[in-house]
Amino acid sequence: MSDPLHIAGKTYQSRLLIGTGKYKDFEQTRQAVEASGAEIVTVAVRRTNLGQEPGEPNLLNFVTPDKYTILPNTAGCFNAEDAVRTCKLARELLDGHNLVKLEVLGDQKTLYPNIAHTVRAAQQLVDDGFDVMVYTNDDPIVAKELEDMGCVSVMPLGSLIGSGLGVLNPHNLLLIMEEAKVPILVDAGVGTPSDATLAMELGCDGILMNSAIAHAREPVLMASAMKKAIEAGREGFLAGRMPKRVFANPSSPSEGLISRD
Amino acid sequence: MTSLTVNGDPMTLDGTTVADLVAQLQLSGRRLAVEVNRDIVPKSEHGQHRLHDGDVVEIVHAIGGG
Predict the structure, then answer these.
(1) What's the average model confidence in pLDDT over B29-47?
(2) Catalytic residue among A22, A101, A109, A228
(3) Contacts of A41 in chain B (CB under 8 A)
(4) Among all residues of chain B, which has the CA nearest to that of A209?
(5) I need a labelling partner for A56 at 20 to 30 A (CA). Which of A46, A49, A121, B50 fits?
(6) ipTM of this complex
């Protein structure tokens, strides 16, 4: 079944986007990305270690820009200025590639988005020609505002980054999706394959996750599990669930029973 | 000799350009981005962009992240 995800004019078959943080090494990262089937992979932008040996391995040699859409993030930025600067560095790093994941965080304890700074940074980035996928809270008004500003995807949290608590407020996600014309991706909070499936059954367009895979006991196996969970949830959403009812309704016919007179 | 701040640390550059700095740090050919005094210096200009005493340089690359 062809059911592609469209983001910023590009078409993707996978609705799972994964992060590359917290893996044991680059080889495990590569294997997890491969097993997940993800086509969009996030990376962080950081100062280069100046004492390094020539030929030191580089993430982008394992997860290569010719095979994957690299999505640089602004993780660790706590104000709009740092986030915009990071995106400009990322664009230079990736040879003019415009797609970025904007996240401007509020504090270390919650990593909750600072919405005032997120909105300010989003506006500057959109004006500067970036395709902005934006991490936000699950407030439907803010989500709509970010979409109206020209963000190519709005990515509300399911729960706090790295918490693994799943989607804590499915009703808010439904409110967001009801109004949205851009893809809504759940970013953050998914802990298990069933969390991912539930989010997809709600009608989310995709999920971005990192810790749920990288912090699993077997990350590569979990990457494969997440791929299937998202496909199952998506197909379940498209198929439409049966109605809930209070009393039983037998699946086998009641006609022709041997005990009937 | 040019005195710079590179990634937060003081550094003395023997050459004159961004390309010289990248070479001195043994980073030539690596995928990175350079900012001088908060402005991006595109790769195509590394060979021409001259550095001056007091310039603040950031050199970044991609690492694992969500």
Answers:
(1) 95
(2) A101
(3) none
(4) B66
(5) B50
(6) 0.94
